[in-house]
Amino acid sequence: xxxINFILGVFFxxxxxxxxxxxxxxxxxxxPSAKPDNGLAILMEKHSISHxxxxxxxxxxxxxxxxxxxxxxxxxIRDVTDFWSNLKKKDGxxxxxxxxxALIFCPDATGNFLVPIxxxxxxxxxxxxxxxxxxxxxLPSVTPVCFGAIFTGAPPEIHGIRKYQDKYLPNxxxxxxxxxxxxxxxxxxxxxxxxxxSIDLIFxxxxxxxxxxxxxxxxxxxxxxxxNEYDLIICYDGNYDSIMHGKGVHHPKSIDAMRDxxxxxxxxxxxxxxxxAEKNRLTAFIPDxxxxxxxxxxxxxxxxxxxxAIVNHFYRLRSGK
Length: 321
Ligand SMILES: [Zn+2]
Hints:
The chain has one domain (52-318): Alkaline Phosphatase, subunit A. Helices cover 37% and strands 16% of the residues. It has helices spanning 9-17, 41-47, 56-64, 78-90, 119-128, 143-150, 156-159, 178-184, 198-202, 216-226, 239-247, 252-275, 306-309, and strands at residues 2-4, 101-107, 131-136, 189-194, 209-213, 232-237, 281-285, 292-293, 299-300, 310-318. The strands form 2 sheets. The chain has an 8-stranded mixed β-sheet, with helices on both faces. It has a two-stranded antiparallel sheet with strand order 8-9. Helix 10 (216-226) runs parallel beside helix 12 (252-275) and helix 11 (239-247) runs antiparallel to helix 12. It is globular and about 55 Å long. The model is unreliable at 6-24 (pLDDT under 50). Residues 108-109, 143, 241, 288-289 line the site of zinc ion.
């Protein structure tokens, strides 16, 4: 497993010089042609982190040999694409082989802030992933704004959702998504999520399928049953987020939900390995933001602070038998 977390001294030099171009720190994560003050760069700069969560879309497109949406200003994560190239070589696969199946599990609010406090729970995820990417999200660090960036590769000012309430607008995502890119390539795509949650609402009216369920557990079980039928599956788990908002980020019931997220992901990985054994495949654990407690002891998020802004994305790749 490879962990990526570069400290970017040079970044600040670029900022101080005020050169008007992207500083060294964002160069490998964001297109050089992007505006220097774009919404992906803000939190990378603040936390000296060289990756953005918006790199999910260009990375998954690159692995699948599909053109990323033109409006994506994030770039593929080199360590993930390099890992795939090396794996193909090791497994004696042709260099032109691409990922045929992808399962993206979205455990809401399970940010990096949980990792040092519950290391034993997170260790299996770090140990079993091929590449773990620590990245920053976008502002405000709330679900529809963050998943908007994750699944478009674009910051809020480009993808269209600038605040939480925008999720209720008709067709709030104004640009092409990862899902459009896959559908245009003839792939079958489905989003499985709880009814009326952000992910259930904001990506509607695309040539893909949607299943709205009542619970995260049901989303996971439905995903297992549908692996055979789809090429790209998004499985959303809002459990930790909804419990911590009511009880606080470290309440035993919240931590039970965090543990469920990790356990469910492993169940999905096992199911994908079985059903997709002959396919080149990706499974990924992709949260949107973290959280912190208010003075009253309730969980919240939306700020630029590290607890809200920094998340780990876990990538696992296997070539087909
Ligand atoms: Zn969220």
